[in-house]
Amino acid sequence: MSDVSGSELRALMARVPSVEKVMASAEFAALLAEYGRTQVLGAVREALDTWRAGAQSGDASVSALDVAQLKSAVEAALRKRHESRLRSVFNLTGTVLHTNLGRALLPDEAVQAVMKALTQPANLEFDLGTGKRGDRDDLIDELICELTGAEAATVVNNNAAAVLLTLSALASKKEVIVSRGELVEIGGAFRIPDIMSRAGAKLREVGTTNRTHLKDYEEAIGPQTALLMKVHASNYAISGFTKEVSLDEITPLAQARGLAVAVDLGSGTLVDLSQWGLPRETTVRETVEAGADLVTFSGDKLLGGPQAGLIVGRRDLIAKIKKHPLKRALRVGKLTLAALEPVLQLHRAPERLTERLTTLRLLTRAADDIRLAAERVQPALQHAVGERYAVTAEPMFSQIGSGALPVDVLPSYGLVVRMADGKRGGRQLLALEKMLREMARPVIGRIAEDALRLDLRCLEAADEAQLVEQLKGARA
Ligand SMILES: *Cc1c(COP(=O)(O)O)cnc(C)c1O
Protein backbone atom coordinates (compact mmCIF):
# COMPACT_ATOMS: atom_id res chain seq x y z
CA MET A 1 0.00 0.00 0.00
CA SER A 2 1.21 3.47 -0.78
CA ASP A 3 -0.53 6.75 -0.51
CA VAL A 4 -1.84 7.94 -3.79
CA SER A 5 -2.03 11.70 -3.48
CA GLY A 6 -5.27 13.49 -4.18
CA SER A 7 -4.04 14.92 -7.44
CA GLU A 8 -2.69 11.58 -8.65
CA LEU A 9 -6.04 9.98 -7.86
CA ARG A 10 -7.92 12.67 -9.72
CA ALA A 11 -5.64 12.17 -12.70
CA LEU A 12 -6.22 8.41 -12.68
CA MET A 13 -9.99 8.82 -12.36
CA ALA A 14 -10.08 11.32 -15.16
CA ARG A 15 -8.56 8.73 -17.50
CA VAL A 16 -11.19 6.08 -16.76
CA PRO A 17 -13.27 5.61 -19.89
CA SER A 18 -16.96 6.46 -19.62
CA VAL A 19 -19.53 3.66 -19.46
CA GLU A 20 -21.04 4.82 -22.77
CA LYS A 21 -17.69 4.78 -24.49
CA VAL A 22 -16.91 1.33 -23.15
CA MET A 23 -20.23 -0.11 -24.26
CA ALA A 24 -19.84 1.32 -27.76
CA SER A 25 -16.24 0.14 -28.16
CA ALA A 26 -15.27 -2.52 -30.70
CA GLU A 27 -13.76 -4.61 -27.88
CA PHE A 28 -17.18 -5.04 -26.27
CA ALA A 29 -19.17 -5.98 -29.38
CA ALA A 30 -18.68 -9.74 -28.98
CA LEU A 31 -19.54 -9.63 -25.26
CA LEU A 32 -22.74 -7.71 -26.01
CA ALA A 33 -23.71 -10.23 -28.66
CA GLU A 34 -23.20 -13.13 -26.28
CA TYR A 35 -24.52 -11.84 -22.97
CA GLY A 36 -26.85 -8.99 -23.94
CA ARG A 37 -26.75 -5.33 -22.93
CA THR A 38 -28.32 -5.66 -19.46
CA GLN A 39 -25.78 -8.10 -18.10
CA VAL A 40 -22.76 -6.45 -19.74
CA LEU A 41 -23.75 -3.02 -18.44
CA GLY A 42 -24.12 -4.40 -14.92
CA ALA A 43 -20.74 -6.12 -15.09
CA VAL A 44 -19.03 -2.96 -16.47
CA ARG A 45 -20.45 -0.85 -13.65
CA GLU A 46 -19.35 -3.40 -11.09
CA ALA A 47 -15.82 -3.55 -12.52
CA LEU A 48 -15.59 0.26 -12.53
CA ASP A 49 -16.82 0.45 -8.93
CA THR A 50 -14.22 -2.09 -7.88
CA TRP A 51 -11.52 -0.14 -9.66
CA ARG A 52 -12.57 3.18 -8.06
CA ALA A 53 -12.77 1.65 -4.60
CA GLY A 54 -9.24 0.29 -5.09
CA ALA A 55 -7.91 3.63 -6.32
CA GLN A 56 -9.53 5.57 -3.47
CA SER A 57 -8.20 3.23 -0.83
CA GLY A 58 -4.72 3.95 -2.17
CA ASP A 59 -4.05 0.44 -3.44
CA ALA A 60 -0.66 0.73 -5.18
CA SER A 61 -1.55 -2.04 -7.62
CA VAL A 62 -4.31 0.12 -9.06
CA SER A 63 -3.10 1.86 -12.15
CA ALA A 64 -4.73 3.53 -15.09
CA LEU A 65 -7.60 1.53 -16.52
CA ASP A 66 -8.07 1.01 -20.26
CA VAL A 67 -10.86 -0.59 -22.26
CA ALA A 68 -8.92 -3.81 -22.93
CA GLN A 69 -8.31 -4.37 -19.20
CA LEU A 70 -11.92 -3.64 -18.45
CA LYS A 71 -12.99 -6.09 -21.11
CA SER A 72 -11.03 -8.99 -19.63
CA ALA A 73 -12.37 -8.22 -16.14
CA VAL A 74 -15.96 -8.09 -17.42
CA GLU A 75 -15.54 -11.21 -19.52
CA ALA A 76 -14.15 -13.19 -16.58
CA ALA A 77 -16.96 -12.01 -14.32
CA LEU A 78 -19.67 -12.91 -16.84
CA ARG A 79 -18.14 -16.29 -17.59
CA LYS A 80 -18.02 -17.12 -13.91
CA ARG A 81 -21.64 -16.03 -13.49
CA HIS A 82 -22.71 -18.38 -16.27
CA GLU A 83 -20.87 -21.42 -14.98
CA SER A 84 -23.35 -24.14 -14.09
CA ARG A 85 -23.62 -24.81 -10.38
CA LEU A 86 -24.42 -28.41 -11.13
CA ARG A 87 -21.05 -29.74 -12.22
CA SER A 88 -19.73 -33.09 -13.35
CA VAL A 89 -17.37 -34.66 -10.85
CA PHE A 90 -15.33 -37.87 -10.68
CA ASN A 91 -16.97 -40.17 -8.15
CA LEU A 92 -13.95 -41.95 -6.69
CA THR A 93 -15.57 -42.39 -3.28
CA GLY A 94 -16.07 -46.10 -3.79
CA THR A 95 -19.81 -45.70 -3.25
CA VAL A 96 -21.50 -46.55 -6.52
CA LEU A 97 -24.99 -45.23 -5.72
CA HIS A 98 -23.85 -42.07 -3.94
CA THR A 99 -26.90 -40.00 -2.99
CA ASN A 100 -24.93 -36.74 -2.72
CA LEU A 101 -23.37 -37.33 -6.13
CA GLY A 102 -26.64 -38.06 -7.90
CA ARG A 103 -27.03 -41.85 -7.50
CA ALA A 104 -27.58 -43.95 -10.64
CA LEU A 105 -25.94 -43.01 -13.94
CA LEU A 106 -28.27 -43.73 -16.80
CA PRO A 107 -27.67 -45.89 -19.84
CA ASP A 108 -27.49 -44.28 -23.25
CA GLU A 109 -30.98 -45.50 -24.24
CA ALA A 110 -32.41 -43.41 -21.39
CA VAL A 111 -30.33 -40.38 -22.34
CA GLN A 112 -31.60 -40.52 -25.94
CA ALA A 113 -35.20 -40.86 -24.75
CA VAL A 114 -34.85 -37.83 -22.48
CA MET A 115 -33.38 -35.76 -25.32
CA LYS A 116 -36.40 -36.58 -27.47
CA ALA A 117 -38.84 -35.81 -24.68
CA LEU A 118 -37.09 -32.48 -24.13
CA THR A 119 -37.33 -31.33 -27.70
CA GLN A 120 -40.42 -32.94 -29.21
CA PRO A 121 -44.08 -33.02 -28.16
CA ALA A 122 -45.16 -36.47 -26.97
CA ASN A 123 -48.31 -38.39 -26.00
CA LEU A 124 -47.65 -37.88 -22.29
CA GLU A 125 -51.36 -37.73 -21.41
CA PHE A 126 -52.89 -38.32 -24.79
CA ASP A 127 -54.42 -41.61 -25.89
CA LEU A 128 -53.32 -42.06 -29.50
CA GLY A 129 -55.97 -44.78 -29.97
CA THR A 130 -58.99 -42.66 -29.10
CA GLY A 131 -57.60 -39.14 -29.48
CA LYS A 132 -58.80 -38.42 -25.97
CA ARG A 133 -57.01 -37.49 -22.80
CA GLY A 134 -54.81 -40.25 -21.42
CA ASP A 135 -53.11 -41.14 -18.13
CA ARG A 136 -49.33 -40.77 -17.92
CA ASP A 137 -49.05 -43.99 -15.90
CA ASP A 138 -50.43 -45.89 -18.93
CA LEU A 139 -47.11 -45.35 -20.68
CA ILE A 140 -45.28 -47.52 -18.24
CA ASP A 141 -47.52 -49.53 -15.92
CA GLU A 142 -47.81 -52.63 -18.10
CA LEU A 143 -44.05 -52.89 -18.33
CA ILE A 144 -43.68 -52.52 -14.57
CA CYS A 145 -46.31 -55.20 -14.01
CA GLU A 146 -44.62 -57.56 -16.46
CA LEU A 147 -41.32 -57.20 -14.62
CA THR A 148 -42.71 -57.43 -11.09
CA GLY A 149 -45.69 -59.75 -11.42
CA ALA A 150 -47.92 -57.08 -9.83
CA GLU A 151 -51.50 -56.36 -10.93
CA ALA A 152 -51.08 -52.60 -11.14
CA ALA A 153 -48.47 -49.87 -10.80
CA THR A 154 -47.98 -46.14 -10.52
CA VAL A 155 -44.96 -43.85 -10.43
CA VAL A 156 -44.22 -40.76 -8.33
CA ASN A 157 -41.32 -38.42 -7.77
CA ASN A 158 -39.21 -40.58 -5.44
CA ASN A 159 -39.63 -43.43 -3.01
CA ALA A 160 -40.18 -41.12 -0.05
CA ALA A 161 -43.16 -39.74 -2.00
CA ALA A 162 -44.31 -43.29 -2.77
CA VAL A 163 -44.40 -44.14 0.95
CA LEU A 164 -46.05 -40.83 1.87
CA LEU A 165 -48.71 -41.28 -0.79
CA THR A 166 -49.37 -44.91 0.09
CA LEU A 167 -49.86 -44.11 3.76
CA SER A 168 -51.95 -41.01 3.02
CA ALA A 169 -54.26 -42.90 0.67
CA LEU A 170 -54.65 -46.07 2.72
CA ALA A 171 -54.04 -45.27 6.36
CA SER A 172 -55.02 -41.67 7.06
CA LYS A 173 -56.55 -41.41 10.57
CA LYS A 174 -55.88 -45.12 11.02
CA GLU A 175 -53.15 -47.24 12.53
CA VAL A 176 -50.17 -48.77 10.79
CA ILE A 177 -48.30 -51.55 12.54
CA VAL A 178 -44.51 -51.50 12.14
CA SER A 179 -41.78 -53.43 13.95
CA ARG A 180 -39.49 -51.31 16.16
CA GLY A 181 -36.58 -52.90 14.33
CA GLU A 182 -37.76 -51.29 11.09
CA LEU A 183 -38.37 -47.68 12.19
CA VAL A 184 -35.45 -46.47 10.14
CA GLU A 185 -34.03 -43.13 9.12
CA ILE A 186 -32.71 -43.12 5.55
CA GLY A 187 -30.36 -40.13 5.51
CA GLY A 188 -31.57 -36.59 4.93
CA ALA A 189 -35.01 -36.19 6.40
CA PHE A 190 -36.67 -39.50 5.66
CA ARG A 191 -37.75 -41.15 8.89
CA ILE A 192 -40.55 -43.66 8.91
CA PRO A 193 -42.25 -42.18 12.05
CA ASP A 194 -42.17 -38.66 10.54
CA ILE A 195 -43.56 -39.76 7.18
CA MET A 196 -46.23 -41.65 9.05
CA SER A 197 -47.41 -38.58 10.96
CA ARG A 198 -47.22 -36.38 7.83
CA ALA A 199 -49.52 -38.88 6.16
CA GLY A 200 -51.94 -38.55 9.06
CA ALA A 201 -51.46 -42.17 10.04
CA LYS A 202 -50.89 -43.39 13.55
CA LEU A 203 -47.78 -45.46 14.05
CA ARG A 204 -48.31 -48.55 16.14
CA GLU A 205 -44.87 -49.85 17.08
CA VAL A 206 -44.50 -53.50 17.94
CA GLY A 207 -41.69 -55.70 19.21
CA THR A 208 -38.28 -54.44 20.27
CA THR A 209 -35.29 -53.10 18.34
CA ASN A 210 -33.71 -56.52 17.94
CA ARG A 211 -36.65 -58.93 18.17
CA THR A 212 -40.19 -58.88 16.89
CA HIS A 213 -42.51 -61.91 16.86
CA LEU A 214 -45.63 -62.69 14.87
CA LYS A 215 -47.70 -62.51 18.04
CA ASP A 216 -46.56 -58.87 18.48
CA TYR A 217 -48.30 -58.02 15.23
CA GLU A 218 -51.26 -60.22 16.12
CA GLU A 219 -51.85 -58.55 19.46
CA ALA A 220 -51.54 -55.03 18.02
CA ILE A 221 -54.27 -55.51 15.41
CA GLY A 222 -57.43 -53.66 16.38
CA PRO A 223 -60.43 -51.89 14.85
CA GLN A 224 -58.25 -48.90 13.89
CA THR A 225 -55.63 -50.93 12.03
CA ALA A 226 -55.36 -50.11 8.33
CA LEU A 227 -52.06 -51.64 7.31
CA LEU A 228 -49.24 -53.89 8.38
CA MET A 229 -46.04 -52.41 7.08
CA LYS A 230 -42.54 -53.76 6.60
CA VAL A 231 -39.59 -51.48 5.90
CA HIS A 232 -36.25 -52.57 4.48
CA ALA A 233 -33.59 -51.73 7.08
CA SER A 234 -31.49 -50.36 4.19
CA ASN A 235 -28.60 -48.63 5.85
CA TYR A 236 -27.95 -50.66 8.95
CA ALA A 237 -27.89 -54.25 10.07
CA ILE A 238 -28.82 -55.75 13.40
CA SER A 239 -26.87 -58.82 14.30
CA GLY A 240 -26.72 -61.13 17.29
CA PHE A 241 -29.89 -62.07 19.17
CA THR A 242 -32.42 -61.00 16.57
CA LYS A 243 -35.80 -62.06 15.24
CA GLU A 244 -37.61 -60.49 12.34
CA VAL A 245 -41.03 -61.63 11.20
CA SER A 246 -40.84 -62.53 7.51
CA LEU A 247 -43.36 -61.47 4.94
CA ASP A 248 -44.36 -65.13 4.52
CA GLU A 249 -45.50 -65.17 8.14
CA ILE A 250 -47.20 -61.79 8.09
CA THR A 251 -49.34 -62.15 4.99
CA PRO A 252 -51.50 -65.07 6.22
CA LEU A 253 -52.17 -63.10 9.40
CA ALA A 254 -53.11 -59.97 7.42
CA GLN A 255 -55.34 -61.97 5.08
CA ALA A 256 -57.13 -63.65 7.99
CA ARG A 257 -57.87 -60.22 9.47
CA GLY A 258 -58.75 -58.59 6.15
CA LEU A 259 -55.81 -56.19 6.27
CA ALA A 260 -53.30 -55.13 3.64
CA VAL A 261 -49.53 -55.48 3.90
CA ALA A 262 -47.28 -52.75 2.49
CA VAL A 263 -43.55 -53.27 2.02
CA ASP A 264 -41.11 -50.41 1.55
CA LEU A 265 -38.25 -52.17 -0.19
CA GLY A 266 -36.15 -49.01 -0.52
CA SER A 267 -33.63 -50.07 -3.08
CA GLY A 268 -35.86 -52.59 -4.79
CA THR A 269 -34.17 -54.66 -7.45
CA LEU A 270 -35.94 -56.47 -10.28
CA VAL A 271 -33.24 -59.10 -10.71
CA ASP A 272 -31.50 -61.56 -8.43
CA LEU A 273 -28.13 -59.89 -7.89
CA SER A 274 -26.53 -63.04 -6.47
CA GLN A 275 -26.27 -64.48 -10.01
CA TRP A 276 -23.40 -62.00 -10.50
CA GLY A 277 -21.78 -62.65 -7.16
CA LEU A 278 -23.39 -59.61 -5.57
CA PRO A 279 -25.12 -59.86 -2.20
CA ARG A 280 -28.59 -61.31 -2.40
CA GLU A 281 -31.55 -58.93 -2.12
CA THR A 282 -35.19 -59.92 -2.23
CA THR A 283 -36.57 -58.83 -5.59
CA VAL A 284 -39.76 -56.88 -6.09
CA ARG A 285 -41.34 -59.91 -7.78
CA GLU A 286 -40.51 -62.17 -4.83
CA THR A 287 -42.04 -59.61 -2.49
CA VAL A 288 -45.23 -59.49 -4.57
CA GLU A 289 -45.32 -63.29 -4.72
CA ALA A 290 -44.87 -63.52 -0.96
CA GLY A 291 -48.20 -61.74 -0.67
CA ALA A 292 -47.37 -58.06 -0.24
CA ASP A 293 -50.40 -56.01 -1.28
CA LEU A 294 -48.24 -52.99 -2.05
CA VAL A 295 -44.52 -52.58 -2.63
CA THR A 296 -42.68 -49.26 -2.88
CA PHE A 297 -39.12 -48.79 -4.21
CA SER A 298 -36.75 -46.22 -5.70
CA GLY A 299 -36.07 -45.66 -9.39
CA ASP A 300 -32.48 -44.47 -8.96
CA LYS A 301 -31.02 -47.03 -6.61
CA LEU A 302 -30.50 -50.64 -7.75
CA LEU A 303 -33.00 -50.21 -10.58
CA GLY A 304 -30.43 -47.91 -12.18
CA GLY A 305 -32.91 -45.37 -13.54
CA PRO A 306 -34.00 -41.78 -12.89
CA GLN A 307 -35.14 -40.44 -9.53
CA ALA A 308 -38.62 -41.90 -9.06
CA GLY A 309 -40.73 -43.87 -6.64
CA LEU A 310 -42.54 -46.93 -7.94
CA ILE A 311 -45.63 -48.33 -6.26
CA VAL A 312 -46.83 -51.76 -7.35
CA GLY A 313 -49.49 -54.06 -6.03
CA ARG A 314 -53.18 -54.87 -5.85
CA ARG A 315 -55.31 -53.21 -8.50
CA ASP A 316 -57.93 -51.83 -6.08
CA LEU A 317 -55.30 -50.32 -3.78
CA ILE A 318 -53.32 -48.76 -6.64
CA ALA A 319 -56.59 -47.27 -7.95
CA LYS A 320 -57.22 -45.71 -4.55
CA ILE A 321 -53.67 -44.33 -4.44
CA LYS A 322 -54.03 -42.83 -7.93
CA LYS A 323 -57.21 -41.02 -6.91
CA HIS A 324 -55.64 -39.35 -3.89
CA PRO A 325 -54.96 -35.59 -4.41
CA LEU A 326 -51.34 -36.02 -3.34
CA LYS A 327 -50.77 -38.19 -6.42
CA ARG A 328 -51.20 -35.08 -8.55
CA ALA A 329 -48.73 -33.17 -6.40
CA LEU A 330 -46.16 -35.95 -6.42
CA ARG A 331 -46.49 -37.08 -10.04
CA VAL A 332 -43.44 -37.47 -12.26
CA GLY A 333 -42.61 -35.32 -15.26
CA LYS A 334 -42.15 -36.52 -18.81
CA LEU A 335 -38.37 -36.62 -18.48
CA THR A 336 -38.61 -39.17 -15.70
CA LEU A 337 -41.03 -41.35 -17.64
CA ALA A 338 -38.89 -41.06 -20.76
CA ALA A 339 -35.81 -42.22 -18.84
CA LEU A 340 -37.56 -44.93 -16.85
CA GLU A 341 -39.06 -46.81 -19.78
CA PRO A 342 -35.79 -47.81 -21.50
CA VAL A 343 -34.27 -48.74 -18.12
CA LEU A 344 -37.19 -51.10 -17.52
CA GLN A 345 -36.91 -52.41 -21.09
CA LEU A 346 -33.30 -53.37 -20.42
CA HIS A 347 -34.48 -55.52 -17.51
CA ARG A 348 -36.38 -57.71 -19.99
CA ALA A 349 -32.99 -59.13 -21.02
CA PRO A 350 -31.35 -59.89 -17.67
CA GLU A 351 -28.53 -61.82 -19.35
CA ARG A 352 -27.33 -58.57 -20.97
CA LEU A 353 -27.97 -56.35 -18.00
CA THR A 354 -24.41 -56.21 -16.64
CA GLU A 355 -23.22 -54.70 -19.91
CA ARG A 356 -26.13 -52.40 -20.59
CA LEU A 357 -27.31 -51.08 -17.25
CA THR A 358 -24.65 -48.65 -16.06
CA THR A 359 -25.27 -49.20 -12.35
CA LEU A 360 -25.02 -52.97 -12.67
CA ARG A 361 -21.97 -52.72 -14.93
CA LEU A 362 -20.20 -50.66 -12.26
CA LEU A 363 -21.32 -52.93 -9.43
CA THR A 364 -20.11 -56.07 -11.22
CA ARG A 365 -16.86 -54.60 -12.57
CA ALA A 366 -14.01 -57.03 -11.88
CA ALA A 367 -11.37 -55.95 -9.37
CA ASP A 368 -8.68 -56.95 -11.88
CA ASP A 369 -10.04 -54.57 -14.46
CA ILE A 370 -10.11 -51.79 -11.88
CA ARG A 371 -6.52 -52.66 -10.88
CA LEU A 372 -5.36 -52.09 -14.46
CA ALA A 373 -7.06 -48.69 -14.44
CA ALA A 374 -5.35 -47.84 -11.14
CA GLU A 375 -1.97 -48.75 -12.58
CA ARG A 376 -2.62 -46.59 -15.65
CA VAL A 377 -3.72 -43.54 -13.65
CA GLN A 378 -1.03 -43.82 -10.94
CA PRO A 379 1.77 -41.93 -12.77
CA ALA A 380 -0.49 -39.00 -13.63
CA LEU A 381 -1.72 -38.69 -10.04
CA GLN A 382 1.84 -38.93 -8.68
CA HIS A 383 2.83 -36.15 -11.07
CA ALA A 384 -0.10 -33.98 -9.99
CA VAL A 385 0.41 -34.33 -6.24
CA GLY A 386 4.21 -33.93 -6.29
CA GLU A 387 6.88 -35.86 -4.39
CA ARG A 388 5.75 -34.88 -0.91
CA TYR A 389 3.08 -37.51 -1.40
CA ALA A 390 3.42 -41.18 -2.39
CA VAL A 391 0.77 -42.68 -4.66
CA THR A 392 0.29 -46.45 -4.78
CA ALA A 393 -2.27 -48.71 -6.46
CA GLU A 394 -3.88 -50.92 -3.83
CA PRO A 395 -6.85 -53.20 -3.31
CA MET A 396 -9.81 -51.71 -1.45
CA PHE A 397 -13.53 -52.27 -1.02
CA SER A 398 -16.36 -50.37 -2.70
CA GLN A 399 -19.90 -50.06 -1.41
CA ILE A 400 -23.16 -50.27 -3.25
CA GLY A 401 -24.55 -47.21 -1.47
CA SER A 402 -27.98 -45.63 -1.15
CA GLY A 403 -28.88 -47.84 1.72
CA ALA A 404 -28.58 -50.95 -0.37
CA LEU A 405 -26.97 -53.81 1.50
CA PRO A 406 -24.92 -51.76 3.94
CA VAL A 407 -22.82 -54.58 5.33
CA ASP A 408 -21.62 -56.02 2.07
CA VAL A 409 -18.62 -54.68 0.22
CA LEU A 410 -17.25 -55.22 -3.25
CA PRO A 411 -13.56 -56.04 -3.84
CA SER A 412 -12.11 -53.15 -5.78
CA TYR A 413 -8.90 -51.31 -6.52
CA GLY A 414 -7.77 -47.74 -6.33
CA LEU A 415 -5.07 -45.20 -5.66
CA VAL A 416 -3.92 -44.47 -2.14
CA VAL A 417 -2.05 -41.25 -1.38
CA ARG A 418 0.06 -41.07 1.79
CA MET A 419 2.78 -38.72 2.95
CA ALA A 420 6.07 -39.73 1.30
CA ASP A 421 7.96 -39.29 4.58
CA GLY A 422 5.73 -41.82 6.32
CA LYS A 423 4.18 -39.19 8.62
CA ARG A 424 0.44 -39.07 9.16
CA GLY A 425 0.02 -35.70 7.44
CA GLY A 426 -3.53 -34.91 8.57
CA ARG A 427 -3.46 -31.30 7.35
CA GLN A 428 -1.54 -32.04 4.15
CA LEU A 429 -3.99 -34.78 3.24
CA LEU A 430 -6.87 -32.38 3.79
CA ALA A 431 -5.13 -29.83 1.58
CA LEU A 432 -4.69 -32.45 -1.10
CA GLU A 433 -8.31 -33.53 -0.84
CA LYS A 434 -9.27 -29.87 -1.32
CA MET A 435 -6.94 -29.41 -4.30
CA LEU A 436 -8.52 -32.39 -6.07
CA ARG A 437 -12.01 -31.17 -5.18
CA GLU A 438 -11.25 -27.76 -6.71
CA MET A 439 -10.10 -29.07 -10.09
CA ALA A 440 -11.95 -28.12 -13.29
CA ARG A 441 -13.83 -31.40 -12.94
CA PRO A 442 -13.70 -32.04 -9.20
CA VAL A 443 -12.20 -35.33 -8.05
CA ILE A 444 -14.07 -36.69 -5.03
CA GLY A 445 -12.30 -39.29 -2.90
CA ARG A 446 -12.25 -39.99 0.80
CA ILE A 447 -9.75 -39.80 3.62
CA ALA A 448 -9.41 -42.88 5.80
CA GLU A 449 -6.57 -44.45 7.79
CA ASP A 450 -4.12 -41.58 7.20
CA ALA A 451 -4.47 -41.72 3.44
CA LEU A 452 -6.51 -40.19 0.67
CA ARG A 453 -8.26 -43.03 -1.12
CA LEU A 454 -9.53 -42.91 -4.69
CA ASP A 455 -11.55 -45.99 -5.64
CA LEU A 456 -11.53 -46.33 -9.44
CA ARG A 457 -14.55 -48.64 -9.76
CA CYS A 458 -16.71 -45.85 -11.20
CA LEU A 459 -14.03 -44.55 -13.54
CA GLU A 460 -14.89 -45.98 -16.94
CA ALA A 461 -12.76 -45.53 -20.08
CA ALA A 462 -13.82 -42.05 -21.26
CA ASP A 463 -13.67 -40.67 -17.73
CA GLU A 464 -10.29 -42.28 -17.17
CA ALA A 465 -8.84 -40.48 -20.18
CA GLN A 466 -10.30 -37.19 -18.98
CA LEU A 467 -8.98 -37.65 -15.46
CA VAL A 468 -5.47 -38.47 -16.70
CA GLU A 469 -5.53 -35.39 -18.96
CA GLN A 470 -6.61 -33.20 -16.06
CA LEU A 471 -3.98 -34.62 -13.71
CA LYS A 472 -1.23 -34.17 -16.29
CA GLY A 473 -2.02 -30.48 -16.47
CA ALA A 474 -1.96 -30.07 -12.67
CA ARG A 475 0.86 -29.77 -10.17
CA ALA A 476 0.43 -29.40 -6.41
C1 LIG B 1 -33.90 -44.92 0.04
C2 LIG B 1 -35.10 -45.33 0.77
C3 LIG B 1 -36.23 -44.50 0.82
C4 LIG B 1 -36.25 -43.17 0.13
O1 LIG B 1 -36.20 -43.33 -1.25
P1 LIG B 1 -35.94 -42.05 -2.19
O2 LIG B 1 -36.09 -42.58 -3.58
O3 LIG B 1 -34.56 -41.59 -1.86
O4 LIG B 1 -36.96 -41.04 -1.85
C5 LIG B 1 -37.32 -44.92 1.51
N1 LIG B 1 -37.33 -46.12 2.15
C6 LIG B 1 -36.26 -46.94 2.15
C7 LIG B 1 -36.33 -48.23 2.91
C8 LIG B 1 -35.10 -46.57 1.47
O5 LIG B 1 -34.02 -47.37 1.46
TrEMBL record:
Subcellular location, record wording: Cytoplasm
Pathway(s) per entry: Aminoacyl-tRNA biosynthesis; selenocysteinyl-tRNA(Sec) biosynthesis; selenocysteinyl-tRNA(Sec) from L-seryl-tRNA(Sec) (bacterial route): step 1/1
Enzyme Commission number, as recorded: 2.9.1.1
Record-level Gene Ontology MF annotations: L-seryl-tRNA(Sec) selenium transferase activity
Reaction(s) catalysed (UniProt annotation): L-seryl-tRNA(Sec) + selenophosphate + H(+) = L-selenocysteinyl-tRNA(Sec) + phosphate
Main location: cytoplasm
Keywords, comma-separated and alphabetical: Cytoplasm, Protein biosynthesis, Pyridoxal phosphate, Selenium, Transferase
Positions where N6-(pyridoxal phosphate)lysine occurs in the chain: K301
Cofactor annotation: pyridoxal 5'-phosphate
Domain L-seryl-tRNA selenium transferase N-terminal, chain residue ranges per copy: 14-52
Pfam families: Se-cys_synth_N, SelA
Matches recorded under InterPro entries: PyrdxlP-dep_Trfase (IPR015424), PyrdxlP-dep_Trfase_major (IPR015421), SelA-like (IPR018319), SelA_trans (IPR004534), SelA_trans_N_dom (IPR025862)
Family as reported in the entry's similarity comment: Belongs to the SelA family.
Role played: Converts seryl-tRNA(Sec) to selenocysteinyl-tRNA(Sec) required for selenoprotein biosynthesis.
PANTHER family the record matches: L-SERYL-TRNA(SEC) SELENIUM TRANSFERASE (PTHR32328)
Protein name (database record): L-seryl-tRNA(Sec) selenium transferase
Species per Swiss-Prot/TrEMBL record: Paraburkholderia phytofirmans
Gene this chain is encoded by: selA
